[in-house]
Amino acid sequence: MVKGANVSLSALSENADSVIVGLSWSSPSGEGDADVSVLLIGANGKVRDNADFFFYNNPAAADGTVQLLGAAPTENGSEDRIRLDLAGLPGDVDRVIVAASRHRRAHFGELENIRLVVTDGSGDGLLDFCIDGASTESAFVFGEVYRREGTWKFRAIGQGYDSGLAGLATDYGIEIDEDDDQDGEGEGGSHVAESSESPASVEPGRPGVGAVEIAAAVESGVSSTADGDAAGVAVGVAVEQAAPTPVPRTAVEVSVPVTVAVPAQRGAEPGTTEPPAAAPARRLRTAKKKVTLPKAPKDSLAENDGWHAARLFPASTLKSDRERETRATSVLLAVMTQVPEFGRRLIAAFGAPAGRMEAFTEVSLPHGDSPKRPDGVIRVERAGKLWTALVETKTNGNALKSEQIQAYMDIAARRGYEAVITLSNDVALEGSSLVEVKTDGRRKHKVALWHLSWAEVTHQAQLLIRHEGVRNEAHAWLLQELLHYLQHDNSGCHGFQNMGPAWVPVRNGIDEETLTPGDPRSVQVVESWERLIRQVCLRLGGELGAKVVPVQRAKRGTDPQSRRSELAHRLCVDGQLRAEIRVEGAPGVLGVVADLRMGRLRTSIEIPAPEQGYPLSWVKRLMRQLAEAPADLHVQTLLDGDGVGPRGTLEKLRPEPGDLLPKGPEAITGFRLSLVKSVGHTRGNAETGFIRGVDAAVDVFHSHVVTRLERPRATQRRTAAPGTPA
Question: How many whole angstroms separate alpha carbon 10 and alpha carbon 545?
Answer without folding.
Answer: 28
